[in-house]
Design a protein that fits this description.
370 residues; single chain; 40% helix; Rossmann fold; 13 helices
């Protein structure tokens, strides 16, 4: 039995606990939160026997083998370091840490102690994302990726998140080095990072406050971001974050020298884009039919997953947790290489530095990077 503990009992902790309890031979032996009522309610929902208000006390008493950290990002580093120093493997929700220096220290400590760490980039492990990875690895693109495009949007009308941020000037999101962006863009950046070939790509970023937020009296929150990532001998990439685009997209496109792929996380679909051209008017008739057939196939595939009870909202998180625990118990490869965690953090650091976060923009102007 693998003993698991959770630090931080907010909404995201519920999704972790639900997926942990789906995995055989795992037990949540302790939960910790500074808010006594919150941890007690969490423990009641998930039948956790021990509740704590202090993470060090919990680790000392229940001695978990794995700790999930689902607290605000400002506390990730200190809690994760303490867990590693006490011999625990650690799953840290996104964003992994506040900056690359903290990420490097945690991963170095994990390697020194022979422990495993992962970041909550579960978006890498949805069913279509795994199919995409298999096609890329099998050579469908016709060679190395040439260009990547990641779009990750957020609807500020979300009643469970935005009102809390806008209504509280002291909300923890406002105090992140990258503000609202810091808590939302890591999933989209991580999708690009998986296919980059160097650890030092050039990053060019522009960001601005939307007219929507300016009208709400929130000129300090940057909610529109455009990023270009360039490698000298690798692929180029675009990253887009928007709170105003409609439809709200969570999409990733990857293009090779022969073919391309479009991953749609909202509809859980993967579409193959053939580089083959048809003669004359057939180019206008045949490709739409091929794409339509793929849409039908995606729908039927998703229905099959649903009937097999493998289509729940957090199936990607379940896969990541299972793979992480497999790395712990069976010495299997980590689901997310440390290089990808560090490069995601490094690119985010560069973005926040370049957009001049914290400087008030002129109306309609962008914060321009180098």
């Amino acid at each position: 039995m693998l003993k698991v503990a959770i630090v931080g009992c907010g909404k995201i902790a519920d999704s972790h606990a639900s997926q942990i309890q789906r995995i055989p031979r795992c037990e949540i032996v302790g939960a910790c939160d500074r808010e006594e009522l919150m941890v007690e309610q969490f423990a009641e929902r998930f039948r956790v026997r021990r509740c704590f208000g202090d993470a060090a006390e919990m680790i000392a008493e229940v001695q978990p083998e794995v700790v999930h950290i689902t607290t605000p990002p400002q506390s990730h580093f200190e809690i994760a370091r303490m867990c590693l120093e006490h011999g625990c493997h650690v799953y840290v929700e996104k964003p992994f840490t506040l900056d690359t220096t903290e990420a490097e220290e945690l991963l170095a400590l994990a390697e020194l102690r022979g422990l495993k760490v992962t970041a909550g980039h579960d978006g890498q492990f949805s069913h279509p994302a795994r199919r995409m990875r298999h096609l890329v690895e099998s050579g469908y693109l016709g060679g190395r990726p040439v260009h990547l495009e990641s779009t990750w949007c957020y609807q500020l009308g979300n009643p469970s998140y935005a009102p809390a941020v806008f209504g509280d000037k002291e909300h923890w999101v406002r105090k992140l080095p990258g503000g609202l962006l810091h808590n939302l863009i890591s999933h989209g950046i991580a999708k690009i990072v998986e296919f980059l070939t160097t650890d030092t790509p050039e990053v060019f970023a522009v960001g601005r406050t939307s007219a929507f937020l300016r009208e709400l009296g929130e000129p300090e929150i940057i909610d529109e971001l455009r990023v270009v990532i360039v490698e000298e001998a690798g692929p180029t990439a675009y990253f887009t974050f928007s709170s105003q685009m409609r439809p709200v997209l969570h999409q990733f496109c990857i293009y090779g020298p022969k073919n391309g792929l479009v991953l749609d996380e909202d509809h859980r679909t993967l579409v193959r884009l053939s580089g083959k051209r048809f003669k004359s008017y057939a180019e206008n008739f045949v490709p739409p039919i091929i794409i339509a057939a793929q849409s039908v196939w995606n729908s039927l595939y998703n229905m099959g997953l649903f009937l097999r009870c493998d289509f729940h909202m957090d199936s990607a998180k379940k896969y990541l947790i299972e793979a992480f625990y497999g790395a712990i118990l069976n010495r299997a490869p980590l689901p997310i290489p440390y290089r990808q965690i560090l490069l995601t953090s490094r690119i985010m650091d560069s973005i926040f530095e370049q957009i001049g976060f914290g400087q008030l923009p002129s109306e309609g102007d962008y914060h321009q990077c180098r």
